[in-house]
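Newbie here. four chains, one complex. Structure please?
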Amino acid sequence: MKGNDLVICRCEEITRADIEEVISQGVTRMNEVKRLTRAGMGLCQGKTCGRLVAGILARETGQSLQELKPSTSRPPTRVLTLGVLAGSKPDND
Amino acid sequence: MGKTEIAVVGGGAAGMTAAIESARAGAQVTIIDENEQPGGQLFKQIHKFFGSGVHRAGTRGVQIGRDLLREAEEAGVQTRLNTVVYGIFPDKRLGLICGDHTEELASEIIILATGANENALSFPGWTLPGVMGAGATQTLININRVLPGRRILMVGAGNVGLIVSYQLLQAGADVIAVIEGLSYIGGYGVHASKIRRAGVPILTGFTVLRAEGKESVERAVIAQVDEKWQPISGSEEVLEVETICLAVGLSPLSELAWMAGCRFSFLPALGGWVPAHDENMQCNLPGIYVAGDLAGIEEASTAMEEGRLAGLAAAESLGYLPPEEGRKRKEELRNRLAALRIGSFGEGRATAKKKLMRAMCEK
Amino acid sequence: MRIEDHPILGKVERGRKITLKVDGEPVMAFEGETIAAALIASGQRVFRYTEKRVEPRGVFCALGRCTDCVMTVDGQPNVRTCVTPARDGMIIQMQGTPDQRETALDAGEGEG
Amino acid sequence: MNQTRKKEGVRTTGIPSKEELEASPGYPSYEALTRGPIVVIECVQDIPCNPCESICPKGAIRVGNPITRLPVFYPEECDGCGNCIPICPGQAIFRVDINHAEDKATVSFPYEYLPLPKKNDIVQGVNRTGEAVCEAEVLRVQKPRKFAQTTVITVAVPKELAMEVRSIKRLKRME
């Protein structure tokens, strides 16, 4: 298996090549990588791949990890099913 | 909408101690934890802790966990289990998922003690069943009481890698080797000595090249690395293992703190991005406190002292402690924390913590 | 492989014996343990196959975060087996197996 | 597995070197060993930790302040209770009696594996690298309740290996 075929985001099955491709197109921020590749948008919300993506982005763009804030956290921190949201005001009947 | 004075997010070592201190001072405290049981990672820490008497040195984490549960109950802490905090909103409202519905909980103070997440290491074959976090292995063997494999490769010789290797031996597995990319063992020498005595080799300057196997791990290929972390050709070795454990560090689990708008600093000695806090563990946002691994990756013993400090300071800010008593007890806790951050293993963290506190003053 | 006796934790205390149905096959479990623990004890390592690359996955974080161990439980997909307690009679199915995909593919071709 | 690069010391091998041990204030001199049973503390790093000091009823082990200081052992104060062996979170404390018999010494060490050996069993003594170096006769298997499942095992080994043997080869689990 070649290095660039390596899965980085386990949930969305995004490879190193996928991430490097968007970086080669000029992407420099974590949020952009996430939006364009879907790395970190899966069920785990980037908990596993976040640091790996930051590492690749730092190496490829010459930025330090300190310059790379993680992609923006927005609620929900866990995947919510629509059923749960629909049940946000539990009725008693 | 539910209401509480102090909401503690996360019922691990830091969250429990924070809740106990606040509740003992007289505050109304609610712990929210996503698990079936509180205690966080304490119940899988079956080894004896370091430190001194006040840190409960020589006592196993699992026993400390049991004691904290009892103390929390005695102190009147409310605990909401199986409840996920999915969001943190203005005016210190928390969005909760409880089973099949969502709820809001309003609070005057939020103490975030969300803990840490295990770092990953990507290499060909790392998605195969049989590659897992060292913490995952620890949960399986010490909580679930099942072995994920007989023959194990541990990647990482920090304290987590060394301790989990020892616990795997105790559970009846064979640890074929511990490998470490650095040229030295990062964890305590005594943890390393224990597993060396049990016949486990520790190979420094080695990395895992790939995991191989059809449907799950059947073997690992490791190799020596040079100073630039590049594998040295010809140094490859094949290890017949069925499980590869990754113990390559932890990162603060910080989504809620980011969402709340906390100011962060990047401090490698504390595990990466860490919310800035003052000497009361309060963030730049008044009424939001952090403690434990979220506030910088350290040991469970430091997490407990930070939890106590945050809990006490939070209760004090609500007027539950006479100022003189609050000052004295916080000072005592800070001394206890300082004692755990000295020596060659602690200095780096002590310096990073100072930077974190200075970051509070920056605009 | 269950750990019955342990030098620190002692003999294990388990709930009553129950039976899960995993992809049609009975699997013995103990009430209260996680589905993942029961499956690992029975020797199962593959918990699902991925959607795009059809690659096997198993337990990775064991904390309910990574979602690599998700399966369909009593008809509900994406249940995190590492944090879901086993209950008698649960029907558990692997998601995305190569077989299922062939079936889906065949059905698709038939329509086209 | 061969370690191709020559390395020494606890930071690279996981085993304290002879120099590290001899520089440690809890590690007895040869002369002290000959005087009778003695505690051997193989604590060579500045870890914040002092249960050995707290547990000793006689004040024979002193860490002091800060708690990262290496434990100092005062043999004349020690009454041989052995409480320091199972309390050490690092399992770095042993007891050695090189005068046990004409050609035998005893070594006591903490042990946390199953199954436990039984008294009078002949097992294999291992050195700090886990290598079996001799037969060892099990003299005592003590499981003091207050030390939370840490067993202290005492074995008799050839006298010349008294400062080499630090545990026994783990016994096969019966399943």
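Moderator note: The helical segments of chain C are 35-41, 98-111. Chain C is about 20% helix and 25% strand. Thread marked as resolved.
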